[in-house]
Amino acid sequence: MMSDRPWWKTGVIYQIAVPSFADSNGDGWGDLRGIIDRLDYLQGSADALGIDAIWLSPINATPFADFGYDVSDYHAVDPRFGTMRDLEDLLAACHERGIRVMMDLVLNHTSVEHPWFSESRSSRDNPRRDWYVWRDGTAPHRPPNGWLAVVEGSAWKYDRATGQYYYHAFLPFQPDLNWRNPEVRHEMLDIARFWLEKGVDGFRLDLMNFLYEDEHLRDNPRRRFAIRPYLAQKHVHDASQPESLEAAKDLRRVADGFPGRALMGEVFTDRPEDCVAYLGDGTDRLHLSFYLDFIRRGWSAVAFRTSVQWLEDHLPECGWPCYYLDNHDLARSHTRLGVGGNAEARARVAAAMLLTLRGTPIIYYGQELGMPQSRVPRRLMRDPVGKRFWPLGVGRDGARTPMQWSGERHAGFSEAEPWLPADRSFVERNVEAESEDSASLLNWYRKLLRLRKERLSLREGSYSAIENTSGDVFAYIREHEGESTAVLLNFAARQAAVRLPEGVAEWHPLLSTHGERPGLTGPECLLASQEALILEAR
Ligand code: GLC
Hints:
The chain is an alpha/beta fold. Helix content is 27%, strand content 17%. It has helices spanning 7-10, 18-21, 32-37, 39-42, 84-96, 115-122, 182-198, 242-256, 272-277, 292-295, 301-314, 333-336, 343-356, 384-388, 431-436, 441-454, 456-460; strands at 13-16, 53-56, 60-61, 73-77, 100-105, 134-135, 156-159, 164-167, 202-205, 262-265, 288-289, 322-324, 360-364, 462-465, 473-480, 483-490, 496-499, 507-512, 524-527, 532-537. A hairpin with a 7-residue loop joins strand 14 (462-465) and strand 15 (473-480). It binds alpha-D-glucopyranose (GLC). Alpha-D-glucopyranose (GLC) is lined by residues 66-67, 69, 106, 170, 206-207, 266, 268, 328-329.
């Protein structure tokens, strides 16, 4: 089942929140050694999940005010997570098993604690002044313009030392770097080169479309209706500037200097066109970019079918989709998409969709166990967004709790009190228990991943929707060199009929959420309530 396509097209990426995956030294923080100890779970053992790459949440030196997305030294590994030696060992251990390693690179902003920023804010004529975006206010107590930070409030923070404002697209302790300064651009590309030379296989690029802002600081046009002020602006001047697309090209040139590397961008936007734009012609910008439209869809077959079709219709010819349902910023899909008694069944249908669509799927650690969105008590919260907006429940800690390895104390994640408490569900929902239960969600993921490995059509094949289904069903055919696979997903809690394409002698069931099924000799197929069924054309 070998293929000559690159790993980032055929493989499955597993996102690891490093602080929460496995603690090897008993300090309550997940670390790089912990990941090494757990590689058997991911790849290379008889019952491994069988993923192809891991994406590590930020591991650079950080005050950890925003989960490491606040870097204070780009060339260092944060001591919470280990040492440079640990990273080298992790790279070697992963590569030995054929696992690629992607690092999270935060190029848009640094921490306020980065020495560059200390220098920059120290005086108006400091050589690093222009490394960040400083401007005068328009009047006393009036910021330079009306741009808003993604989280809340003005995106400008007044700094008394020099009487100017600095720009921060995200939180005030994350000042934006000034990418218009050639020294900054050069330095950031150099940082990418540094890690590629170390042997990392690519990057997840944080806020890729935020690197540049409009040179003239033009205000954004307004929208009439929005649920919060940030969304009441159309972000045409503070995000998604043409220069950021050029930066994607520059980064691609750097990556292309190293064989087999890949760039995957977080394109944070409500315009799906932006996601596609960052792929360029499919060969000259990023390899993959996040398609936010997909995760914004509620539990509806029509919604997902529409979202997928949009991307299929708009991708450049050499472009490749990338799908995910969970990450460190989202409420976990088991809770978000599941309602009461339906959560488990939906999680199975969602997994089948994620792992059989045309594109590269990303699994977020614990998703395969059905880890729910955890309720982290206020006094234990870490996420600044969650703390600021308590009790609105918008915080991200609930999706970042320790990986649930076993039913032991702290879910087998650590011997010490973890940095965030393990979710209570760990007692039943953990790797050990689910491994022993052939009907568990974890084993469903394993089956799907195995099937994906066995079938080129699922990894590389074309996608075409099966149109004549009821609104409850999302169904499609994946096809590659005569191998044809049908995927039928019933989103509803009632039976649904599907009419498969004609001219097939037998549709042979490969996998179903509902166990064994006889083959189908005609085109009519009746799906059970919330059934995911995968068939082979014979
Ligand atoms: C990205 C990250 C998010 C972080 C933000 C600021 O959206 O995914 O976790 O808080 O950027 O870096």
